[in-house]
Input
Amino acid sequence: MSAPRILRAEVVRHRGTFTWWSLLLPIGFTLWCLWLATAAQSSGLASSEGRWDGDVLGWLSFYAIGFLLPISALVGGACQWREQHQRHGGALWRDVSPTRVLLARLAVLSSAMLASQAVVIGLVVGHALVMGAGWGPVDRWLPLVAVMWAVGSSGAAGGVLAARVAGGTGTGAAVVGAFAWSFAGAVGAEADDWALRPWTWAVRPMLPLLGTHSNSVVLEEGAPAWEYPVAPGVLLQAGLCAVLVVCVLAADGVMRGVEARGSLFLPGWARAQWMRGLRARRLRARGVAGGGSGESEVRAGRPVGCGAGAGPGPAVERLAGRGTDAGGEARASVGARGLGSPGASVGLAGAAATGPRRFPSVVAATEPSRIPSVVAGVGPRGRVRSLRAVAAVLPWPAWTMLALVLFAVLAVARVYPRATGVGALALLGMPTAGFVVGVTSWTAFEGAWRGLVLRVRPWRVLVAWACCAGAFLMAVSSAGLAVLGARSAVGALVLTAVSVMCAAAGWACAEAVGAPWASALGFFAVLSAAVVCGNEALSASWLWLGAPAGWGWIAWSDPTRLGPVVVMSAGLGVLALVGAALGSARAARRMR
Output
């Protein structure tokens, strides 16, 4: 198969996916930067000092330095995870080299990054032309496209690498790591030994092109950053991108060896047992009851219960047509299987608990999991028996690790003044924790969502989830303030209200358009909160209303806004939960 055909097939595979629509992310962020620049200057909070089009390139630094690398990592990781989850669109079964397919994927992602940066600069230049500012400094914004292209391609390659090694978890880790990489680059970009710090290569060449310091402060006349050369930074960043591509290809070869042989170092009998467990996990991911008799019952047309020893509920009987003959029994089997989804099988619990265990290792790997337990914990008459049915599905280990990392960062922040630590917790820590809780909760419930909406009203599940998430976030906010030595019940309540609002928004967005879009929304919300609410001049104006994720810091720094912040946060959180409840049926129909 020729290289152009492989590339064309990869382009077709990306059509209509998150990679295709991710162009909306830089467009939205660029429009936000333009709106923020116009609003700040019209309100007298900022001055362009005679720069081109109100110093629009300086305001674009929030995108180039803080937003570009994490979002490109999200796009690359989501693309790779999607292709792995969907068996590479059938490419694994064709006579095509996996290395060539992966190179084509990286080429398509790099092309998407180039298109994104061209659209961003096109919007900026178009705004300047409309405002009558002319074409402006072409020698600055044209090289800026090349710099941002190199940075975006590196981020996408890093996301592909993380997803190939660690799957969906690696995608999230890649986004967090890219944000930390950008922050470290912004801190050390103006150091003399920048060439020895790879994290500064993405930031330093942008400074003379944007006309700002690495903290987005406008460069003064005669500042050394105006003389920074652009070419060395671009070449170093391109070399880093090439190294990441080589690492992606090497990791793909290692992972294919592990998937084919079970492990590179295990003996033969251990490999066989590992492969049986891998096969069971793949069957469960496709919605088939894995292992021995459970799989045989589904294929033979015999209905499988939704829990251990439990038959299908009334909703299943209505869906199956209440048949008692052979055709009705087959329809009941279809109805029981319909409760499952690609993330989990509702019949898994009954299949693993009944029937002879012909393959002990496979059956052990498919014991009743947390996903079907939430379906079994829902009463047949549409009542949630207790919060335990919902709490059993939530990813508590991931949340605990998130909280521990946050506490460690806050412990380090104690060397700074207390206001700095509280600001970091209110502007970055709690909003990030809220969105992570919301998105990961939906991904945990997604596999059993079809079975849930057939047995109980969605708002009952959402209320139970909100109680669990609120309790966790309340504990995190209280403990975080205690680590900083700023114990305050009112402050913890405000931070909890804002973080629960973020969690509800993350759940609703993930349910409506998917986890990648919800992750991008969360990152944009947190970054906008840091930019607007973290700035004294901007937060003192009405602009703080446009950054809900930073309302916790607004209420902490100005007690007169405490009441409005709590009321508005609760209102937005309730609206998000109502939207999630109304869209639950659509989300269930989307499950296959």
Q: What stands out?
A: The chain is about 70% helix and 0% strand. The mean pLDDT is 77. The two ends are 32 Å apart (CA to CA).
